Amino acid sequence: MPSTHNYLMPHDQKGADISESASETRQYISFTIGQEEYGVDIMAVREIKAWTDTTHLPNTPEYMRGVLNLRGVIVPIFDLRCRFGMGLTQATNMHVVVIVQVGQRMVGMLVDAVSDILTIAKDEIQQMPQMERNIDDEYLSGLVTVKDRLVALLDADLLFNQQSIENGVVLGKAALGDK
Amino acid sequence: MPQEFDLNQFKVTYFEECQDLLETAEEQLSILQAQLGDVDVETLHAIFRCVHSIKGGAGAFNFTGLIEFSHILETTLDLLREGKIQPDHNLVDCLIRSNDVLGTLVHMAQKEIEPSPDIWKTIASELEKYSGLNITTSAASLNEEDVSPLLASVAGYNLTAEEEEEQGWGLFLENILPPSSQMSSEMEKDDQGWGLFGDEPEIENNTETAHCPELTKPHYRIRFVPEPHLLQFANEPLLLARELKTLGDCIAHVDVSRLPKLADIAPDVAYLSWSFDLYTDRSIADIEEVFEFVIDDCQLDIQLVDNREQIEVTSDVADSPQDEALADLAGDIQPRESTPVPRPQKEQSLSKTENKKVDMAANGNVSAPMVSSIRVELDRVDRLVNMVGELVITQSMLKQQADELANNAGLRMTQGFEELNARTRELQESVMAIRMQPVKSVFARMPRLVRELSAKLGKKIDLITSGEMTEVDKTVIEQLMDPLTHMIRNSVDHGVETPDERRAAGKPERARIYLRAEHKSGRIQIEVSDDGRGIDRDRVLAKAEEKGLIERDVEIDAQAIDNLIFTPGFSTANSVSDVSGRGVGMDVVRRNIISLGGRISVFSTPGEGARFLMSLPLTLAVLDGMIVKCGAEKYIIPLTSIIESIHPVREEIKSLMNGGTLVSVRGQYIRIVNLHHLFNLKDAITDPAESLVVIVETERYGYVGIMVDELLGQQQVVIKSLEENYDPIAGVAAATILGNGKVALILDVDGLAEMEHGAEKRRKNKSLQRQVFLTGE
């Protein structure tokens, strides 16, 4: 069986960020969940596909929507709306799954719709204001305003790595049961 | 051969090769140890060849530390095999450690770390003690020829007698000289390449005395014309010539007429041919035997000639001036009268001490079986395995669609599908076979483990292995290493008694540990057994009670007590030793085996020994499964663990106080696993009397019944890792893709039984843990 510790990979891109000058641009794919718009680095996105029925995994958190077969690879799908505490997505085939690469793993994010490809210069990205939000700040790498829309940039590495570790711990405990 | 000389590519090959060589050396060293007192010189040759090949490559890449150390080791080995020093226990021990150091140095070279001499200096001086002592005591008795390599080694000069003899795989140029001797090493390169040009002043130093043919013996004229592809089958005319020479006096004449221009020469094509004048009493059959291995790849003509006939001394002179020059050159180097050995075409060159090695080289190389194998990256094989897996899925998808077609069309297609099915299964099996490897690679490491541990513990143990060539998937082999190491350790540490105890028990002092592998009903069975004291049931029981693993005063049979050693947290070792008993124990072994889809069981007879049996699947890529439905979900239960499935009637079902359920099957009560409960499934049948119970065999809990809604059918499925992209899930072993393209989970029956067990316990304890468990929060 392959190692399950891949998610502990360092975030290579962090180092690259520092060396980039302020005017350098990056592309983000933006998607919507309800009224909110989020962006994720285009380089991490492997594929975008319509929602299909998944196979439910037992005893997993609610936002874990099960796994699907992506050309022979088993990919877990996370419901971002639910992950952000906004309730379960009533998924239809109009909903979209964004498959992203996180470290060595591939995960899918269930979102409402993909809206745009944004080209954003580094100096356009604002730091997250310290205020109460649905998502813990640490999963967001910044905010940008694009044509009056506010787009929150997600750091997929953090979002899923953190979660994987937590899941691992919880499940590890569960697996050990009563010991 | 690649057009570009990409050193890195060769390095990769070299290190792979080194790994093999180190393992072979290790294996041979243990054989050597077993042979002490009656050493087979072939073993020494084999070890020598390994070290020599490692050194050869190291020279090509200039890994100085590695070269120096391997050279010292090689010198000692050389003395050993020439019988100048006698192997004893200490020396062999020293050699084994040297091999480890060699491994370390190779590893460092691979990591491009320059090793500090401290790593090998100690052991090197130990080795030199053996070889050095010898020089002072016996040098006087050596003849000039034999002294030279010794002197060379004493002076730190890096060439030994064997240097020129390419033992390895011919990829590397033997560039062993230190940089200061660059000139001569350059020459050596040429020499290794062609051996045709005037780079061999040494040849004139040939100490071999010229033999005048005894004209009284029958004279055979042998014409030997190799087919161009002869060399590609690892045949070497030089060796044949040497072999011929052992039959009698032999004069070789080279025919260079087929030699093309230098630019047109392909390195692996045989251009030269020979005629030999052989004076021998042997029969034609003996001569023919020399050519036995090449007879299909050459034209051979053996004739008895009249003794009085003048020996023909002119070699066929080529037409072109260049070739003529070559021929002359060859003539200069190799005066026909004095050198009864033909010119080799490539790689080999004559050296002053070479001839005495003739027998060795001939045995080692000519009789070696031709292995037609290639090295392939595992990635490529895996890709193939994956693709075939996809093919199987696609096929079952098509089949499903065909089945839905109108009757007539469907029927006709069914036949086609059957055929296709047979073919794909065949294809799949062939592809899987590529990944199969003999378990030898794992077994080979065990003798050493036993040796070291028994020495440490003061026990006398023989390890007897069998079935090393049993083949199993590479992944299984990799995963087998740890559990097997642990079990052997366990046997040595706990199972086998000290010699005193054994004597007292009336057993032979030397204990035996058996390691066996065999194929059994589509699985591989590995057995580790010893003739030690067996499992101490009283102690196991006491320990288990002490740790609260079982309840006190419960009747428990002997087999069950033995099986307690697999319980997590169980380790009977009184003290934590560095041999075994570090808190992890047989439960880890069991877990590892189970994660491979295997089973382990123990049979112990007090005072007579313990026997561990492991049964593992041959491959981890496919499995035969039963598709079951539970609620809206489909799961797969591995067919190998299914015993039967039953529809229980209500009277057979008993509810326990703790919420657990039992079902009586022919008088035997079997615990029911509530799949829908454990997995929190909606819409599943909750009444055991209405459901179907699939009885499966588990490692720890014996038979348990998994409650499902219905059976959907049997299918071979391709195992997909869930953990590639997600975390392990309790009760789920892996995933697969069904014919409709959907993912289905493969159940881990042992995990489920454990979950059920835990759930019952929790229900009993009214603990909050259950909530944690079910919500995952």
Instruction: Describe the main β-sheet of chain B briefly.
Output: 6 strands, mixed
Q: What is the beta-strand fraction of chain B?
A: 15-25%
Structural class of chain A, please?
alpha+beta
pLDDT average of chain A, as an integer? Answer: 75
- CATH homologous superfamily of chain A - what is it? CheA-289, Domain 4
CATH class of chain A: Mainly Beta
- Into which percent range does the helicity of residues of chain A fall? 10-25%
Largest sheet of chain A: 5 strands, mixed
As for the number of domains of chain B, it is 5
CATH-defined topology of the largest domain in chain B: Four Helix Bundle (Hemerythrin (Met), subunit A)
Q: Do you know the CATH architecture of the largest domain in chain B? A: Up-down Bundle
- Helix segment tally of chain B: 23
Task: Walk me through this protein's architecture.
The complex is a heterodimer of chains A (179) and B (777). With 179 residues, chain A is α+β, with helices and mostly antiparallel strands. Chain A is 18% helix and 40% strand. Chain A has one domain: Beta Barrel (OB fold (Dihydrolipoamide Acetyltransferase, E2P)), CATH 2.40.50. In chain A, the strands form two sheets. Chain A has a five-stranded mixed beta sheet with strand order 8-1-2-10-9. A five-stranded mixed beta sheet of chain A has the order 3-6-7-5-4. The longest helix of chain A is centred in the C-terminal third of the chain and has 21 residues, at 156-176. Chain A is globular. Chain A starts with 11 loop residues before the first helix and ends with a helix. Chain B is an alpha+beta fold. Chain B has a six-stranded mixed beta sheet. In chain B, strands 6-8-9-11-10 form a five-stranded mixed beta sheet. In chain B, a hairpin with a 5-residue loop joins strand 18 (692-697) and strand 19. The interface between A and B is large, with 36 and 47 residues.
